[in-house]
Automatic annotation (TrEMBL):
Lineage of the organism: Eukaryota, Viridiplantae, Streptophyta, Embryophyta, Tracheophyta
GO molecular function: hydrolase activity
PANTHER family, sorted: ARYLACETAMIDE DEACETYLASE, OS07G0162600 PROTEIN
Protein name: Alpha/beta hydrolase fold-3 domain-containing protein
Pfam family, one: Abhydrolase_3
Record domain DUF1618: where: 281-413
SUPFAM superfamilies: alpha/beta-Hydrolases (SSF53474)
Residue ranges, annotated region (Disordered): 519-543
Amino acid sequence: MTRLQCRNPFAVSVKLGNDVVHATLGGRGAAAPRKYLGRFAGFAIMSRTSTPPSWCLLLQKVHCPNFIDGDYAKKQGLLSMDLVCESKRAWGFDDSDLVDGIDTESMMEYVKVQARVTDAPNLSFLTMTLGGDEEEKAVFPILHAMDRNLLVFDLTFPDKIDGAYLIYDTIGKTLSMIPALSSLSSPDGMAHTTQVLIARPHAAVDDGSYALALLGKMGVVDKPGDMPVISWPDVIYQWRPSSSISPWKLIKNANLPQQWMADKSAFSADVAFSFEGHAFWVDLMHGILFCTCADLLSDDVKDVGFDSIDLPLDCLKFTPHSWTMAERQAYRTVGCTGNSIKFVSMHFRGCVKRGAPKVTVWRLEVYAKIWVKEHVLNLKTLWTQPAFLAANLPMDMAAMYPVLSMHEEHVICFMLGEYDLSASGVVLPSNVRHFLRVDMLSATLLSSAPIPSAYSYAPVVVPSDLTSYLPPTAAVAFSTVAPTVSPAAIATVVSPPNIPASPASNAFALPDKAPRGVDYSMSQTELPESTSPSESSPAMASTTPAPYVVEDCGPNLQLFSDGTVIRFEDYNILPPPVLPPALSTVQWKDVVYDAGRGLKLRMYAPANHGGEEGKLPVLVYFHGGGFCIASFELPNFHAGALRLAGELPAVVLSADYRLAPEHRLPAAYEDAVAVLSWLRGQAAAAADPWLAASADFERVFVCGDSCGGNIAHHLTVGCGSGDIALDAARLAGCVMLWPYFGGEARMPSEAPPPPPEGDASPSAMGITLFDQMWRLALPAGATRDHPAANPFGPESPPLDGVAFPPVLIVDPELDVLRDRVADYAARLEAMGKRVELVKFEGQGHGFFVLDPMSEASGELVRVVRRFPSKRSRAQPAMASLSDPNAPPPHVVEDCRGALQLLSDGTVVRAAAAPPPFHVRLDINDGRVEWKDAVYDAAHGLGEKLPVVVYFHGGGFCIGSCTWPNFHAGCLRLAAELPAVVLSFDYRLAPEHRLPAAHEDAAAALIWLRDQLLSDPWLADAADARKVFVSGESAGGNFAHHLAVRFGAAGLDPVRVAGYVLLMPAFISERPTPSELAAPATAFLTRDMCDRYCRLALPAGADKDHPLVNPFGPASRSLEAADVGRVLVVAADGDLLRDKNVEYAERMKAMGKDVELVVFAGEEHAFFGVKPMSAATGELVEVIRRFIAGAAASTTNNLNN
């Protein structure tokens, strides 16, 4: 019995299955201020799940006055009769409750509520009873929050403010109840809850600690005059389990986090959820505040340290400042899905025709605070699909209330409903009518469900499979396992059907000295793949002894005597990786490679790669974990794969496989073969567009760390012996990172460690743990000499005749397996295999996984990069490697750390590639749209605005159109000229020396010529007869060469009306006065110019090469060149000033139409460095006047 004392209480009993919880709830408080509430008559609020971002139950609540006279309520149309109390006896009635003689405080004396929670194991019917004997009322609860084993239901009643929260523990099958914020927080009763958050601290050992944080609005009445004024500040109440007698206790009343951060005073908590031990509070107009759950649970609010993340920039631009919280929640949401946080925005752009907004999904790299745009979908593409038409869905409704799916990372759910338009044209949501589920990757409608019109002002249940949102441990707990301790960290529990589970009461009651059997002797029968946990045998009789631990693999895994396997998959021993901004451009998605077993792999591909010449090698990667634990979804494995894909670069396929002991070897090998079979099909059919665009199937490398390296070995043997066929693909190499091999005979490095002294703990990666993993993974009764573990064991097949591709083996110095790994490499080399062994000093087993962003991990990536980079597409699989005894590469060019060229040809660009300055873009009014395009494909061109083709600077060696400053400058050009701006990337030196970049610039104009009218953006806005070619620094150099090549005529139907050269990169062997006078502290120095020239120019060329010196001894004459109109901009503080001025004057002397503008007090590339500065604003105005004059001249010429 749980009793929570409140003013004017009433009794509540809730029954779930065979469990009943009682509570005393309610409370009216002082009555006088209640008459001023107004109760928001007729205002509908759609409630939905938040922490578990997935639709389960929906409740539409209507806050209206509670009139004692039901007939009066019906006449006024305030509420549906289903929600009106007919009781004539007032509860807590006094004279102050009368308004104009009408009782506004009558409340329902009792109501019996039945609600179905759809498709959940042992969660069939919820029965709630209040008070005495009255008519039953149908009021459904809503699943408001979920985290691991906890479900939090909102039991708010539709005709009163007071309510409750029901907390159900899916493992312990326990119920508890707390009052809603409205019952407790304010003596006036003027409060209500808006969000519920389950907070858990991030700890190496989860002790089950958690709390509910209730976010709400508290009504504060102030009477400055005769008329009271009510304000609604945000408040937080936290509840924490305290005892079995009183499991919930109010521990703290605190203000919201923005009140601890002066610069976030306007913050409003629209969404709250927890993720990886942090609590997140989201303002859907501004951004996110977050703190650790440990801080949140501390009793001293002054110790809480909050941090903030802004919303994506292009989302902030289109945020109507007049949106209410309900409107924000109708079109935006943030939540956790899979192992990431995502933000969804529905953007109407003022158009509601056929309910077709644009839906954009961003993924948050939390530790780098970077939003990565994942999907953009125009929902009007759904309306013509057969599934949409077959469901008879309406064409005239608006899409609203987006929700993320917890486990389906690319699925978005939303509602179709009626809408109204505000005076400003904003779409206002009204009654919902349909529930839709959409796959963002394929832009297809997966399913839909109608919402009965009779429920427009009544609770609504939308069918959903709640089982898919509960971890497997919860599903098993309903029928077999019910731990008495809090197994909050458990992610998987498996009970083999042939071994009955123990009683729930003592399932985890371990004896003080449980046997830790060295020889695993229990039954090894695997759980059949077709058998679900709910099909397990009935529980043992009460006399069955409690199960005990037979293998305890540290903080990773426990195996019990009854066959139960518990994995602790928080992996808090791993420090969270901090991703550098450069990796934000790597795209990834999950695909199923074995539908029968539900096995997936995660595909990574760096952006801006594609085309036949730009295709990348394919690295098939298998994670480590002793064959028993882990997944590609773990943050550290994910971060490592991101780094490999981004820095090699390569297409990385990181695959999961079945784990032991449920699935002993060779199960993992079979799954790995299935991965290669799937890849073989992709190579033959080009089914996946990512692989078709980016993957070079002639360069496939198998790779893995630890047991993943073991898998890579066995795949290589299978391919080399002909047992595995790749057909259209080719295995070009094998990369083994500290491969997990074993043997009964110990190697010197595998000697058991001495017993730890004092309180010291043994190594987490010691030989004892490795032996345990082998006992769990190998077939029953097998030893470490089994061929799976020992490639050279007595039963292992000989490898002499196997055709190995080149093999790279990484062997850390501190790894206990180092001698075995070195022996493996030496034996292969003795057989004539091409093997490269690389030792890493001072590193231990799994260092790349433990800290994928470390300096050592960076060096590892460079080692792997050099290994496949030497395997060109023309080379056979057995191509020779470089001399393994060659000295390590050294730096031959260092451009201020932004770029390094090594002696072996490797180019290392800094992880944080963009310049170290920050842009605050003030163009937030929606004047500019932008998108990325690939310009080696055909698109279209239309009319209206002039077109500015822009090439960024960077000394021909660094930079990208995606850099924030270049992006901001183009946004400003587009908004203030105005114009359609096309900002192009190009190949960079030294990997691609000049004239590669000039060829790409010419290809950009050819692409523009081929556009015509196929691209809707250009068709609506661009004038093909008024094209202007521009660029800064190196980009200005391109503009000159394009002017010489294409001239004023351009490429029909494209007509180039002018060229804009911003501080163009011209130089010569003879230094100018401005070069000699340039200080060493300048943004661009002579030394940097010389370095970039050495890296970019053709090998052996000097600075008089025609590509950088238009008037050099070998340069062609420009006398006859019809370059059209040219604007040259120079900066007074630029060392290239004299060259820029000389260029303009010599072109003028030849009779060219050239305008020169020199900016005083500015340095080189000030447009790219300071795109929002006053000087840049003046520059944009200069360009605007130039374009206007040139465009007018072009129009006159065309008319004549």
